[in-house]
Give the backbone structure.
Amino acid sequence: MLNSLRAALICIFLGMWHVVVAATSGSEDTSAARAEAIDFVWAGQRVWFDFISQGDYQLVAYYDASRQMSVALRQLGDVNGAPWIYHKLPSYLGWDAHNSITAAFDADGHIHIVGNLHTNPLVYFRSTKPYDPRSLIPVKQMVSAAHEERMTYPGFFVDRQRQLFFKYRDGSSNRGSWYYLSWDNSAKQWRNTYKKPVLDGQGQRSVYPYGPVFGPDGYAHLSFVWRETPIASSNHDLSYARSRDLVNWETSNGEPIGLPIQLANSEVIDPVPMHGGLLNGRTPIGFDSEQRVLVTYQKYDEQGNTQVYLRRKEGHEWREVRVSDWKNSRVDLDKGGALKLPIITSQPAFINSGKQIVVSAKYHDNDWQWVLDANSLEVLSSNVSQSDLPNAITQYDIDNDIPQRVLPMRDEQTSPSTQYYISWEAMHPNRDQARENIPMPSTLRVHRLK
C-alpha cells in the first residue's frame, strides 16, 4: 500500500512539474544565458539523446525517468512564448547503453524518430502532420524487412543539398554491414542509396565507421575499423573512403572503390593488428587549413600504453604522429558490451586562430588538448583542464559520482550549435548489464548561451 501511494504521489508531482515547465517557459530573453528544465530523465547509464533544429523549430528526443522514449518540441517566437509540446512513444529502454535515439525533420517538417536498437527489429516513428509530435505513429518498415531485423547505430543526417539520409548497421558486432537510405520527399518513402551494403562485413566480421563527415573539399569522408569478434580488442585496420554523392566511393587518391566496401578493397591507412589497442567509433575526422584530412584515433605504443595518434593525408601518403606521451595508460579492450573508457577520442582535430592544429581527447574525465605545428606536426604544447564548457552549463553538474552529459543542438540538422545545448546526468555504461541500484532521475535541461 505504501509503495502504491508513493508511486501515485510521484506521478502527481511529475504531472504538476510538466505543467509548471510549460507555463513558465516564456518568450526568450536573448540578452543573457538561460537554462530551462525539460523533464526528469533516466540516469542509470549513458544513452545518447538527440537535439535538432529546423527553421524556428527545436526538438529533443530522450528517455524519461521511466525509461520511456519521449519527444519535446517547441517553436521559437511563438505568440504563446514557445511552450514545449510533449509526447511519449511506446518504446522503453533496458540496460543497454547502445540504444541511443536519433531524430530528423524532412523537408515538409514531418518528424522522424528511430532508437532503442541493439541488434533489434526496427523501432521507427513518423509524424502524420508537420512539426506535430503528437501525430507520431509507428512505422514497421523503412525499405527491406530482411535487413531491418537486427539493427544497431541508427543515425539521421542531411547533406549540403538538404537531402535527408538514414544510416544503420544490419547484423552484430562480428557480422555486420552498413546501409544508407535516402528519403524521397515527394513519394514519402525511404529508398536504398545502393542495392547492397555500403560497408560490408561479408558475414565474417563487422565494420565501425565514423561519419560521413562533409568536408570543405566537397567530399563526404568516412573513417572506419574492422572487428572480428564481439570483443573490442579484435578491432583492426584503420581505413578510409570518400564520396561526392554517397553512392560512388573512392580512396584518398581518387581511385574508385567498387561497392560494397569490404576489407579486401578498402584503403587501410594504418594496419593496426588485432589486440593493437584500436577502438571502434573513436576515429573522428577533421581538416587543416589546406583542407587535408586529419584522423584522430588511439592505439598501443611500443610499450603497450594507449596513446593518441593523428594521421594526415599528405600528397599520396598518410603521415602519422603520436600526440600523447602517457605512462601506464593501457586501456584493456578484452571485453564486450558498452565499456567505461578512461581514454576517449571523439572530437575532430581543428585549426585554431593561429592556424595551428589542435588535437583533443579525454583522459580520466580530464580534457586534454595538444597544439601541433601545422607543417611539421610537432607537438608544441599540451593543456589539461577539467572542462572547456562554460559555467552557464557546468553549474548544474551536481557534486556526485554521476557525470554530466552535454550535447550541442544540431543546428539545421547539420553543424553543432554554439548557442543551444542539452545537459543531464547519467552513469557510465556498465557493459549493458543491470546495476544493483538505480540512481534518482536527473534533470534534462536546454541551455541557451549568450
